[in-house]
Structure formats: C-alpha cells, structure tokens
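Posting this for the archive.
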Amino acid sequence: MSTEFTRILLDGRTVSLTAHRGRIIAIQPCHGTARHVALPLPVEPHVHLDKTFTAGRCRSTEPGLFGAIEAMAGDLANWSEEDLRFRMGRALREASDNGIRALRSHVDWSEPGAPLAWHVLGEMAQDWRDRIRVQRASLTPLDLLGDPDHGPGIAARVAGDGGVLGCFVYRNDRIDAWLERVFELAGRYGLRLDFHVDEGLDLKADGFDRIVALTSRYGMAGRVLCGHACSLAIRSESEVARMAAAASEAGVALVVLPTTNLWLQDSSAERTPRMRGLAPVHELRSAGVSVLFGSDNVADPFYPFGSYDAVEVLRLASVSAQFVPGEWLDTITTGPAVALGMDPPELAVGAPADFLLIEGHDWTQALRGPRARRTVVRKGEVMHDDRMAA
C-alpha cells in the first residue's frame, strides 16, 4: 500500500511525495500553497548519553566547564547498569520521537579499561538499531590516550567494538607528542578521530591548529571531527581566516555545540557573560569547512536544559550566530551523516522514505517557533503525526 504526502515544500517547489515499501517512489509537482516543509531525518553528531538526565541529582557548585566536570565526577558512584540503561533509554526515545535517524555519543573513558557505560551503550545500540543508528566514541584524556602503555590498548578495544577514537584536548603538556601518537593509533587501527578541543576562551588554546596540521600530514581528510573550538571565537579575523582555510584544505569538520557553549563559556556568578564561545561558523563555512551543529549535553551539569532535537538546536544556533536556518539545513542532515561516515540522506525517488515534515508554508514559518506541528516518517510510515514539538 502506498502513502501519499501532499503540498510539501521541497527544494523550493510544492510537491506531493509518494512512499511505498519504505522507499520514495514518486515526487510530483502539485497545486496550492505548501502546508509542510520537508527535510531528511536529522543526524546528531555529538551527544553524551552516559551523562544525560543527571541534572536533578548533580549540580555544579562552581560556574564554567571545570565546575561541571567536577560535579559530574561526583555522580559516577550512581552509574550502575540499571541507572545507565534507564537514562540512556529515555534519551534514545526522545531522539527517536524527534526524528533523529543516527547519532554519535561520547562515553567518558578515564581509565585504561573500558568503562561500564561503554558496554551498556554497545548493547543498547543493538536494541535500538532498527530505529536509531548509534555510534560510540571514546572520550579519553589526551594524556592517557597518548600514553604508550595505555593508548594502544584503548585504541584496539575501540576498533574491535567498531567505535570512534576520541579525546579531550585543552592546553595539555606535551600536546604535540600526545596528539602525534593519537594519529598514529588511528592509522594503525583504521579509526576515525573525534576531538573535544579548545573548549575555553584562551588565546593559548590552539589544539585545533595542531589537529588540522596532523590531519593533513596523515592524510585523514574526512575522518577527523572536532567539537567546540571555542577559542577561535576570540582570535583576530586574519587568524580565523588562516585556520578556516587550513581546516578546509585538510578536510577537518567542526561541530559547534550552541547549548553547552553558551551556558558554560565566560560563566561566572552574578556577572553577565560577554564572550559566548561560539566558533566563527560563517567564516568557516565560507572557507569550505563542513560546519555541523549538535545537541551536546542534555539535562546534566554541563547544560541542565535541552532535548535531543536537532531542529531546535538549529533554531538556537541561528539566533546565536545570526543566519537564516532554512539555508543551513545541511548542518543537521547531510553534513553530520558524511562526518560520521554514513551515506548522506536525500529526498529523491528511490531513496528511503525517512523524513521529517514541519507545518508551515516555508522555512521561516516552520522554524518561527518551537510549537510547529511535526510528522516523523520512517520507512514510509508515520511515527508521530501532528506532534506538538517540545
């Protein structure tokens, strides 16, 4: 049985879209004003499922990133298998309801052995594979991952589990030696790399520069994703232009995390933040860098609000960085898919009938506010019809 969706705005045209047996079999022009806009189901490039939904029991006593890290460390005693399954399952349900088709979750990995959350998320990824494709990325301190006694074992385990090798980089001692070893490990085990880098407002934080140079040297274009790069926000225009050109040539993608960056950067008690810590997305994108947006932290000490909703993240990013969101849809769809090594989604005849419809005659109306009605379609079947967005 075929399902027809009519008066859809797609690529600037009003069309009807017909799905049959999980595929799009026809896209035809139709008369009348569009009632919905359409986009492929989003891909979420950067979240932390192991930390999620801890905000109610775990609050920072100090503002900023390192206060949140300290608060999160104090909650680790609560991370039983039951606790992790409950919280991560709630997150995956929310992501599924909001139309996410794939995501990459970082998992804190602060000891040589694989953490419990890595095991649990691996099992849950199998349970959820028919609804959401879950990638695991290790989140290891650079000093540990670069350690010749421990790094190879971590990399081997990540590779054996089909994961992504990741670490936290911020003004480390011996940063060049450690990063070199991380790239060597990626080459040895055939791994993609994902870095939390320069998550602070310090001109001396230049890990992004070093990662870009190593990506070029090791020929890893398209296999390295950086997150944050907040320190780029306070560099001179000439420095930003230089790094944007270098990152584009090297093939490094950057995911910007507006919720957590806005919440934590330049944060202090009883003082209005002046510097918001968003990387210069316009300059990077104009230079050819693949710029993505991600939800990052949801309901934890790093960001006590939020949801697993790529469309809402795009709306917030558009306000924060001042751009027209309908012109940046690739930052939550095709861009993240390619960065995660997946086939880019498309809405075309023969493609999977996986898409999101948002009520509105154009993108400005559809994204004007958070309460526009949505329809999630997976394999040609309506999952959530006329759902009020959270």
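The first helix runs from residue 65 to 73. Residues 385-390 have pLDDT under 50 and may be disordered.
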